[in-house]
């Protein structure tokens, strides 16, 4: 059976053929409205925020976070998403499984640093006009956060599972980095 000559029929030609003429303006408007009314589905996004200590040097922070992201991505793509079984045939799995190089998720992260000053809240009853403002505001530690957005490719069956593995492992690597530099500081 040769199915190579099958072609899709256009919707406008099908409507025109059924009515015996061109579609009316009203039908065209309702078709456009129906196309516009379909809400565009938002991609599944996993958002996490990791807090790091200020002990990590600023110069090394970006490189360490990038390295942690790369290692976690390698782990997520290399990990098995199912338990091995005698019934699983590798040849059959290669036929039905998504491509190994298909993108399961994409990663975006942003490193933020904010100061956590120890300055008390301003109160109108605590105001002393002769106090020097610099003496009142004592600089505090820097709070470093890594905001992580992982956009899952829902077209791939195991995309969400692998994205969750990535987030878990990325957090683990950041905790190791944080602990390493916190122990050096103490």
What's the SSE blueprint?
Elements: H1 11-19, H2 25-37, E1 45-52, H3 58-78, H4 90-96, E2 105-116, H5 133-136, E3 141-152, H6 159-185
Antiparallel strand pairs: 1-3, 2-3
Q: How many discrete domains?
A: 1
Q: What is the topology, as strand order, of the major beta sheet?
A: 1-3-2
Count of DSSP helices? Answer: 6
* Bulk shape: flat
- Flag low-confidence runs: 134-139
Strand content: 15-25%
Rg value = 28 Å
Average pLDDT reading: 78
Structural class: alpha+beta
SSE order, one letter for each helix or strand: HHEHHEHEH
Region (Disordered): 14-42
Biased composition (Low complexity): 14-36
Give an overview of the whole structure.
Residues 14-36 have a biased composition (Low complexity). Residues 14-42 are annotated as: Disordered. The longest helix has 27 residues, at 159-185. The chain is an alpha+beta fold. The protein has one domain (45-185). The chain is 44% helix and 17% strand. α3 (58-78) packs antiparallel against α6.
Essential attributes:
186 residues; alpha+beta; three-stranded antiparallel sheet
Short description:
The protein is α+β, with helices and mostly antiparallel strands.
């Amino acid at each position: 059976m040769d199915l190579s000559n099958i072609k899709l029929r256009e919707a406008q030609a099908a409507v025109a053929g059924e009515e015996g003429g061109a579609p009316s303006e009203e039908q065209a408007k309702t078709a456009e409205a129906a196309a516009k009314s379909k809400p565009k589905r938002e991609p599944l996004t996993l958002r996490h925020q990791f807090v790091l200590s200020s002990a990590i040097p600023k110069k090394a922070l970006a490189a360490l976070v990038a390295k942690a992201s790369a290692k976690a991505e390698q782990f997520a793509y290399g990990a098995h998403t199912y338990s091995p079984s005698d019934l699983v045939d590798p040849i059959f799995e290669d036929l039905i499984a998504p491509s190994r190089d298909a993108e399961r998720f994409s990663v975006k992260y942003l490193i933020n640093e904010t100061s956590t000053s120890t300055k008390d809240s301003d109160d109108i009853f605590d105001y002393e006009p002769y106090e020097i403002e610099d003496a009142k505001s004592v600089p505090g530690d820097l709070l470093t956060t890594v905001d992580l957005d992982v956009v899952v490719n829902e077209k791939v069956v195991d995309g969400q599972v692998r994205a969750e593995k990535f987030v878990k492992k990325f957090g683990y690597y950041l905790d190791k980095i944080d602990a390493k530099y916190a122990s050096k500081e103490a």
